[in-house]
Structure formats: C-alpha cells, structure tokens
Amino acid sequence: MSKPIVIRNGLVIDGSRAEPLKADVAIDEGRIIEIGNDISKGEAEIVDATDKVVSPGFIDIKTHSDWTLPLMPQAESKIRQGVTTEVIGHCGYSCAPALPDKVDALSEYLSPSAPWLSFKETNFNDYLNHYPALSVNAIHLVGHNTLRLMTMGLEDRPPTPDELSHMKGLLKEALASGALGMSSGLFTAPGSFSETEELVALGKILEGSGASYFTHLRNEGNNVFDAIQETMEFSEQVGVHVQIVHMKLSGLDNWGGARKAMNLFSEARNKGISIDCDIYPYTAASNPLRNLMPAWLQEGGIEATLTRLVNPDMRKRLRNEIDQEGLNNFGRIPSWEAVRISISPNLPEYAGRTIASLAEERGIDQFEMALDFIVEDRGQTRVLVDSISEADVRAFVQDPDVMIGSDGNSVSPEGTTGQGRPHPRFYGTFAKVLGHYSRDLGLLSLQDAIYKMTGSSAKALGLRNRGLLKPGFNADITIFDPQSIAERATYEDPHQYAAGVDTVLVNGIKTLQGGEHTGALAGKILRRQQDFSNSKLI
Ligand SMILES: [Zn+2]
C-alpha cells in the first residue's frame, strides 16, 4: 500500500458550492482522512498545491468512452482535464449484451461510432467482469437500443409481449450485474421505433431495482418540448431518477428556449419528480451523418439504407421532408456549411471539410452531396453540426442545477483514437467551463462551476462517497491552476490536451503528476449495488 499523501496549501473547493477554503487535505488507503490546517502525517508524501485549486475529481456524467476505453484505458483526454469518473453506455448504445447470432448486428450497428471495436458474444455480467483496468472509474449503463436490437432487430413496430419480456430479462441481468440504469436514444433507430408505453414497461424494472433512467430525448429540434413532455409522462408513471442528457435546443427555430426548459424541470422537481439535465458547453453537436435523415431511412440496417439512397424517388421524398421539417432531430440549420465531417473511416481525407465545400468542389447540389457522402462512406461518417445557440449554452452554464457532461470519448492524439477530427469537447469540456465561462467571462463562480461537475452529478447519480472533498470519501481529487486552466482543442485542431491541470488522484493513486500521465490504472467499475445509495438488490 502506498504511503499517506498530504496536499498542502491549496484552495479547497469541496464540490458542495461552499466558499473556497485554504486548507490541507490528507489521504490514506485511497480515502480522504482529514481536511484542515497544517496537517502533519509523519512519513506522508507532500504535494504542494500553493496557488492551486484542490477539488473533487470531475464526474463526466455523459460520455461514450466505452467506444474508446478498451483501446486506450489511460483515458488521456479526460484525466488531463481532471475527470476521474465516466458514465458510459449512453444514448441507448451499450456494447453489451451481445447475444449469440446477434454479435455482427451489434458490431454493424455501432460501427459509425466505434469502427475499431471488436465484439464477441457476452452477457452484461461477463462484459463488466472482463472490462480492462482503467485510469478512471467507470459507471456502466445498459442501452435500450442495444436491448431492442438484440430482441427484434431494427424493426419499426412495437414489441410483442414475448419480446417485451425478453428485453425485461436482459435489462434485469444488466442491473443485477451492476449497471446503474438504462439509457435510451429515442432520436434514432431502433429506439425511435418505441412508444412511451414500452419505455414505461422497462422503467418499472428500473424502479424495482432503484436504478436510474438516462434519456437522449426523442427530439432535440423542432419537437424538443414534446420530447420533454414525453419524459415527464414517463416520470409521472415511473419512480426513478431521470437524467435528460446533453440537453439542447437545436435548429434556428428553437433557439432561445433554454430558460423555458429549465423552468419546466424546476416545476417538475417542485412536484416531487426527480429530473435533471446536463449539457456540453458547445454550439456544435456530433452525430452519424445518416442520423440527420429521417428514421424511416434506416429501417432494416445499413444495406437497406444505402439501397434507398440510390433510388431517385427516395431522394425526392427525403428532400421534401427535410425542406419542410429540417434535419431529423436537428431542425433547420443555417446551411450545409454548418455540417462538418468529423470522422470518415472509408474516406479519411475528408475529415474537417464541410458538406457545402465538398459540394462546391464537385459542382453539385449540397443536399445531394450529403446523400452521396453517406453512400460513398457506406454510412460510417460522423459529422459535427453547428446547430445550437451560444446564448442557450450560456444560460445552461449559468444554472447551478444543470450538470456538465462532455458527451465525448476519452481519446489521445496518438493511435487509433487520434484519427479524424473529433469534437473538441473530447479534450476541453471541463477546462472550458472553468477557464472560459467561469474565469474569463465571469458567468459563474468557481465553486458553482465545480459543483456542476462534482457534487451535483454525484447527487443525481446517487453515487456514494464521491463527488465531494470530505473525510471518509474516496480520494478522487483534481488539482489545477485557476489562472491557467483552459481548453486548447478547437474544431479545426481538436487533438489538443487541456492546459492547467496539474495533479489527478484516482482512488488515492496519482494518475496525473505535473501535468503528465503516470500510467496508473487505479479506476474501479462502480456497481449499482455497492457504490450507489438508491439501489435495491434484486
Ligand atoms: Zn445522445
């Protein structure tokens, strides 16, 4: 066992919104044992935190790092922002269970997001038990889209009673294995084929286990308030904590709606509904290019989609729908200049280009260009869509009840995860809130900013003994320079680590030291039954 550590002379911001306090923090056996002045612990290793902030490690409540952690367990882009815990398996997508004869279907389904992952048959329990050692703690969710794919493929219809009970069985197995809850991705197939009733039926299983529900709303564009209403209806029938992930108002016609959304959430909370949301602090969203098209296009999988896309009548129908309603889930965008290719596994030379510029180069219509690109890259392309207003982002950033989650993967500039031009939020989310929005723009105090990524998230998750600096709590700790913390990643050049984070401890083990990764893999898989306060054993 390593010797005790005393972090000296730092400005302690404890994650509860309390005022900063100059104090020492002592750690032993992976836990915080004392916070106070002039702590002396004999043989202890001293970490000098003069002029630095000492805060709980950040909880990234919304990530897809299950797509990258198996390749890069050091979680480089997150550790270097001060993140010590990631919640993975979001938006209906989980990498397990993978049932016999359905492994290829899952692999194909997740290929636009994680073409580098290999899949094999597994239940949720084996998946968690064989998860690689990581630098961060990981909280796993099971995805509704994955459960549906395993049960009834990509079919656009309600489940039969047998199929529903099959999904319930898979959900129970995942929850019994330690998944914190279920995520849904109602914006895309096959989640988009489900009715609220199906979600409520699965929600009852969550309720029975004291588990939680995380939802990517059915619509984040022109019908966003209908989608919020659907979530409220779910909440009225199912007594679990509900987290609306990466809350946004997408599309020109919906800008300015942040305050209305936050008011709805606080009214619901006043009525006793447990509902929260999180955001990433950027105006661009990231998605597979094919998801910008109506859900019907994707019924039956990639081959069926590609076949429809080369049919001129189908193209005409798509154009009419998009002209009238805007892009699926995104609403009306200013132009195809707002859609930038992020990662294109089959056509990597186009990363960073906009659909508008490609259309100009080829001398063709921009909409036809978007469809051509889906065909040419066989539906594998991810794009960034600049579709959110900065004023809404700032309104969410300023609200202490809205949490910060990156919606980004742990990546590093080297190796497979360094390919393409991912969203800068992978590298910069937390540093941007602390540096740009709190320090530079003064939109919120440092203690409020830290609360939104520590204590508030731990409370929403029901996470036990993490998220605050408190004696007895696990020693997940981030030490950063409040003067220099900054995002360095940009849309043009995203593979840039954040600046200003000096030291990160995960479960009391130094994982970042002097801004460099130590290689430590001290993260734990946090299981519902042991690490959360709300859960009931099943
Ligand atoms: Zn999502």
Q: Which structural class do you get from the secondary structure elements? A: alpha/beta
What average pLDDT do the residues reach? Answer: 95
Number of strands: 21
What's the story with the biggest beta sheet?
9 strands, mixed
Bound molecules: zinc ion
Number of helices: 17
Strand content: 15-25%
Low-confidence runs of at least 5 consecutive residues: none
What form results from the Cα inertia axes? globular
For the terminal residues, how far apart are their CA atoms?
Answer: 34 Å
What does this structure look like?
With 538 residues, the protein is α/β, with parallel strands linked by helices. Helix content is 31%, strand content 19%. It has 17 helices and 21 strands. Strands 1, 2, 3, 4, 5, 17, 18, 19 and 20 form a 9-stranded mixed beta sheet that branches. Strands 6, 7, 8, 9, 10, 11, 12, 16 and 21 form a 9-stranded parallel beta sheet that branches. Strands 13-15-14 form a 3-stranded antiparallel beta sheet, with no helix packed on it. Strand 10, helix 7 and strand 11 form a beta-alpha-beta unit. Helix 6 crosses helix 7. It is globular and about 75 Å long. The mean pLDDT is 95. The structure holds zinc ion. The site of zinc ion has 5 residues, from loops.
Concise overview:
With 538 residues, this protein is α/β, with parallel strands linked by helices. The protein has helices at 76-79, 103-110, 124-129, 144-152, 161-177, 196-209, 224-237, 258-270, 302-309, 312-325, 355-362, 366-376, 390-398, 425-440, 446-451, 455-461, 528-531, and strands at 5-12, 21-28, 31-36, 45-48, 53-56, 58-60, 83-88, 137-143, 181-185, 212-216, 242-244, 275-279, 284-288, 339-343, 382-386, 403-404, 477-480, 501-506, 509-513, 516-517, 525-526.
